[in-house]
Design a protein that fits this description.
The complex is a heterodimer of chains A (225) and B (214). With 225 residues, chain A is mainly alpha-helical. Chain A contains nine helices and two strands. Chain A folds into two domains: 119 residues, RNA polymerase sigma factor, region 2, helix turn helix motif (Rna Polymerase Sigma Factor, Chain: A, Orthogonal Bundle), CATH 1.10.1740; 76 residues, Arc Repressor Mutant, subunit A (Orthogonal Bundle), CATH 1.10.10. In chain A, helix 4 packs across helix 5, helix 6 packs across helix 9 and helix 8 crosses helix 9. The N terminus of chain A is likely disordered. Chain B is α+β, with helices and mostly antiparallel strands. Chain B has two domains: 86 residues; 115 residues, Jelly Rolls (Sandwich), CATH 2.60.120.10. Classes of the chains: A mainly alpha (225), B alpha+beta (214). The interface between A and B is large, with 90 and 79 residues.
């Protein structure tokens, strides 16, 4: 199902996420034929990742690699890796994208966001001697999301726009803390030393940034709170 | 039952950015396993990360050889089904980190019926441990050199006029001196993360402190 503008409808996303759900909501009867809630529209890269997930499409994977590869590499270099190490982690990241694509949930994240999260985890495992603790949705102790209900969240593409606007709405001081945390992987204590300000100030800037982002973007699922 | 007391936004932000120390990350990840609301907030934080990464100047193209290396073999598709069968007290990733569920761990006695399992984590500044407090018993009065975060995994505890239950996080700053009490219904098992040694106010636990490292 293809719509103009490289946007496709991906009805499977919610169905996959809400395994165990009982009957489709009356309110979503228009999409009941697909057995799912109305799906968000996908940007081009997210649609390619879905193609990798569903059919192992090598061409789609190659275009993801050519588009995101240089950006992932720039991210890894920025976060303190030397070129050799960055290339190793880059390869690990895309191997995970290739092998784990079936776990990609297009209703939850864009391809950019999903690939960022993988690169971030591989960076932590490789550049620090820490392990990256991650929750596992397949764990029997996992507390799953309740049945989806109410309004459809903004489509992934519209959200990307909203995120850019929300970032622009932060103060320069808040953006600086974000930049150092995301790009350079600096902890709050390290940021405090680097900027010569108290740790409490760094944490409160981070908290203000978080609150601002949340009020600009809205919690994705406000009904969960 | 839904989680009522969540992790702070600055912790979710640092966890999503990948800049949080391992001990605190363990607490945040375990809370996330139990809290759909915070997972929704994490989605938002990761969108910020994705957006920042997507807007990086792309620089030189990457080696096509890497692409070939990745797609050369068969795809190892990840399993969607867990082989683990619960119920578990400790969610992943805590179970994995501790080396088993609560019942199979080597608990060490701390005195007063309180037991602990220290967890090995990277980074000098913070430490993580599992604590088990007998039903109805109180933890000795203590203050902190720094920050303490406690996540309840079984039973409940009462502290500073608030009940904390499975999935809830209690945060105590450097100025707090408190004496949490376990609820009467069951032993309280929690994950405690501190960024400085606890300071007990009574003499006996203070003497024990160097022995047990808390």
């Amino acid at each position: 199902m293809t719509k103009p503008g490289n946007v496709i409808v991906y009805p499977d996303a919610h169905a996959r996420r809400s395994v165990g759900r009982t009957v489709p909501d009356e309110a979503t009867a228009d999409s009941a034929e697909a057995g799912a809630r109305p799906a968000g529209r996908l940007d081009e890269m997210s649609a390619r990742l879905v193609a990798v997930a569903e059919t192992g499409d090598r061409g789609a994977f190659a275009s993801l690699f050519r588009h995101f590869g240089p950006r992932v590499r720039a991210y890894l270099l920025r976060a303190g890796g030397d070129a050799g190490k960055a290339d190793d982690v880059l390869q690990e990241t895309f191997a995970a994208v290739w092998n784990r694509a079936a776990l990609y949930d297009a209703s939850r994240a864009s391809a950019a966001t999903w690939i960022f999260a993988i690169a971030r985890n591989r960076r932590i495992d490789a550049f620090r001697r820490d392990r990256r603790p991650e929750f596992d949705p397949r764990d029997p102790a996992f507390h799953p999301d309740p049945d989806p209900g109410g309004e459809e969240a903004l489509a992934v593409q519209e959200r990307a726009e909203a995120v850019r606007n929300a970032l622009a709405a932060l103060s320069e001081e808040q953006r600086e803390v974000l930049r150092l945390s995301f790009y350079e992987g600096e902890s709050y204590p390290a940021i405090a030393i680097r900027l010569g300000i108290p740790l409490g100030t760094v944490k409160s800037r981070a908290r203000l940034a978080f609150n601002r982002l949340r009020s600009e973007l809205g919690a994705r699922r406000e009904d969960l709170r | 039952m839904n989680v009522v007391h969540h992790v702070d936004g600055d912790l979710l932000l640092a966890y999503g950015a990948g800049s949080l120390d391992e001990a605190t990350s363990l607490l945040v990840a375990t809370h996330l396993a139990l809290c759909p609301a915070c997972r929704s907030d994490l989605d938002m934080v990761e969108e910020v990360g994705g957006s920042l990464m997507a807007s990086m100047p792309s620089g030189a193209p990457v080696e096509e050889a890497t692409l070939d290396a990745v797609t050369a073999g068969q795809r190892h598709t990840a399993s969607e089904v867990s082989e683990a069968t619960g119920p578990f007290v400790l969610p992943q990733p805590l179970r994995d980190h501790a080396g088993g569920d609560a019942g199979s761990l080597r608990w060490r006695t701390l005195g007063g019926g309180i037991r602990q399992v220290p967890l090995r984590t990277g980074g000098m500044a913070t430490s993580a441990r599992l604590l088990s407090i007998p039903a109805g018993r109180s933890v000795p009065d203590h203050g902190h050199g720094g920050f303490e975060a406690t996540l309840v995994l079984a039973g409940s505890f009462y502290d500073r006029e608030t009940w904390y239950r499975r999935g809830d996080v209690s945060l105590a700053g450097p100025t707090v001196v408190h004496q949490p009490v376990a609820g009467p219904e069951a032993d309280c098992i929690c994950l405690a993360v501190t960024d400085a040694p606890l300071r007990f106010r009574s003499l006996v636990p203070r003497l024990l402190q160097p022995l047990f490292g808390i």
